[in-house]
Amino acid sequence: MEQLLQQIEQVKQEINTFEGYNGEAAETFRIKYLGTKGIIKGLMGGMKDVPNDQKREFGQVMNALKQLAEEKWEALKLAGGDGAAAGGSTIDWSLPGTQQQVGSRHPISIVRNEIISIYHRLGFAIAEGPEVEDDWHNFTALNLPENHPARDMQDTFYINQNPDWLLRTHTSSVQARTMETQKPPIRIICPGRVYRNETISARAHCFFHQVEGLYVDENVSFADLKQTLYFFVQEMFGKEVKVRFRPSYFPFTEPSAEMDISCTVCGGAGCSLCKHTGWVEILGCGMVHPKMLDNFGIDSNKYTGFAFGMGMERICQLKYVVNDLRLYSQNDVRFLQQFTSSV
Questions:
Q1: DSSP state of 67
Q2: Under CATH, what is the fold of the domain 107-342?
Q3: What confidence tens digit (pLDDT) does each residue in 85-98 have?
Q4: Would you say the pTM of this structure is higher than 0.90?
Q5: Residue 189 in contact with residue 310, Cβ under 8 Å?
């Protein structure tokens, strides 16, 4: 037993002093110490000569030796390139390390977070809802009854009919669900993905992202709406950007308007992005239709409100001059890496 322990101690010293920096050295070590005919296997064979009352102690010593050898082998493999084939080149430790790639947020996520931050400063909370909606929340409750002509612009992907379930066409459905469960004052923005039956091109896609806003309280006026949107535009695009409102139509607001800003690419001089008009439409807005308030048991004689909605892709296009909507969903690393500095 004493002689075996001396041999084990000598093998430990050999293992600790063994050096090698390639796959060949690691393989040599494995064969010599851990192979089927290796030193450790041979020492284990001496178990038969150990007295019975010492076999347990000897077994513990051998297990420790084997563990030491395995740890040394793993270190040698790592130094040699994880067990590279014999004859592989050694590592040049003087070379600089490999630079790690830094990821980035998606441009839509960057814009979404910035929009949320701006409206958060105005006291707007975030509200979210399901992407698969029923007809009531997506259309009827928003003053879009069946066979209403405005529905033609929002025919989308139906999951089921009778009853109708569909992929939501706008995040206005989240406004509907909020008014269903909350009473004024209500001040929310609703970011999320929406779907339309559109031909995919550089200017349109079958899905995109919206941020809609809703404010319902006593004595809310169109002036409140305009000042809210003025603040948003100046925070997002800068103080020098001009704003204009044009009369429009939406079933769930009255009066309604489209809001344009001076083109951020050409500065209002005229370019292909603004179709040489100097103006770019960024959102629709208006005062909440009284019928929509009544649909959710909110007294339209006491409360008024405003709503607005914008496409995140359009905001992103103006902020980063992206000329093709398809780039947002193609996962092209060359495109996404341009936004690394925006993390």
A1: H
A2: BirA Bifunctional Protein; domain 2 (3.30.930)
A3: 444 456 677 888 88
A4: no
A5: no
